[in-house]
Amino acid sequence: MIWLWVVLALMTGGVLAGLLRPLLRVNAAAVARADFDIAVYRDQLDELRRDEERGTLSASEAAAAWLEIERRLLAATAKAEAPPPAPRPARFAAILVMLTLPIAAVGLYLALGEPDMPDQPLASRSAERALLAEDGTLDPAKVKVALEARLKADPESLDGWLLLARTDASLGAWDDGKAAYEKAMAMSKDRPDVMEGYAELLVGSAQGQVTDPAMDLFTRAVAADHNRIKARYYLALSAAQHGDLPQAIAGWKALEADAPAGAPWRATVTEMREEAERRLAGGAPDASPSPSTDPGGPRDSAAAQIAKLPPGEQGQAIRGMVEGLAARLEAHPDDLAGWQRLARAYVVLGEGQKAEAAYRQVLQRDPKQPDALWQLGLAAAATGRTQEAADHWKTLLDQLPPGSPEAGRVQKAIEQLQAAK
């Protein structure tokens, strides 16, 4: 027991030293310290924004971090703006502290102390678990509520509106996300990253189609900042969706050339470019039926006819072929090759949900089909289903020759998934 009192005495002495030092001299650096804290918190917000753009943080994780940094920033700002305290007789205060603090501390400890009580676990703190789901992960719906409450108190926070918009997008609350981005657009005065994010939300709300409003925003974002990777990707995708495969290929090749070493998005761009090149080599997406479902009429003839059409009409003709194949597969659902062609065609057209559904049909008929495993892994990873993505890619990896470039690519994708957890 004596050691407990020795430790308490040392702690009390340390506390007294810390309290008496500012009382016995003028603390001229208080405001400067607050200004320094403000600068640090603003740098943290900038870094948080960059991390989210790089994809190292999800919208929910970024929103939770933003809420905490914003709280500290507001506190530091209030501290910096507060008037300096009125002068007090510092020496008298020091003597008073020396006499009363040890007595008060011992008295409180004897009355209230419970040295045997274990530390409170971090997860049990209500303020910190308020944003968590039952499984311990961030709950986007709770993050949305917290952001909305914060924005009521601070409606001029651009970062807050951006995080709310991205959280809405992750929830599929497209109308709410559009409203939040409209606020951010007005406050940012057409900042390129804001235009890019708004356009991406419009694409998501249109189930992967690059609509005219999204196209306009992407174009303006790239005009203001050529390094907007997402905007350039979607501009190429828009060209593919409208049947202009050469322009799409050129756009994706330019992105590959500009990709930094280890860029996690390069594999997706390469996949899209290679798929477009395969379609272009055949004159059109490989959406024609297999011989088992359409024995009459050569495929190359239809492709050649489409290739002669203007780009705008090519897109309509290609969609007609895809819809025709989808209808025939409903009548002949056991045609594995047909499902593969339909899935690849949907990828080129940018219809992600339909492509995923078609690849699931492929996997039902061939559980080890490499292209389906890879594409379903990409779709799962893009929507936060990391375990599902890892399962698909591990199944694919088991089939590939060890040490092959393909195996290395899949292994790297799995490692990136694990690092993101």
TrEMBL record:
SUPFAM superfamilies: TPR-like. The chain crosses the membrane at residues 92-112. PROSITE patterns: TPR. Residues 281-301 have a biased composition (Low complexity). TPR repeats lie at residues 336-369. It is found in: Cell envelope. One of its GO terms (biological process) is cytochrome complex assembly. GO terms for cellular component: cell envelope; plasma membrane. Residues 142-260 form the Cytochrome c-type biogenesis protein H TPR domain. Keywords: Cytochrome c-type biogenesis, Membrane, Repeat, TPR repeat, Transmembrane, Transmembrane helix. It comes from the Bacteria. Pfam families: TPR_16, TPR_CcmH_CycH. Residues 273-303 are annotated as: Disordered. InterPro entries: C-type_cytochrome_biogenesis, Cyt_c_biogenesis_CcmI, TPR-like_helical_dom_sf, TPR_CcmH_CycH, TPR_rpt. PANTHER family: CYTOCHROME C-TYPE BIOGENESIS PROTEIN CCMH, FORMATE-DEPENDENT NITRITE REDUCTASE COMPLEX SUBUNIT NRFF. This is Cytochrome c-type biogenesis protein CycH.
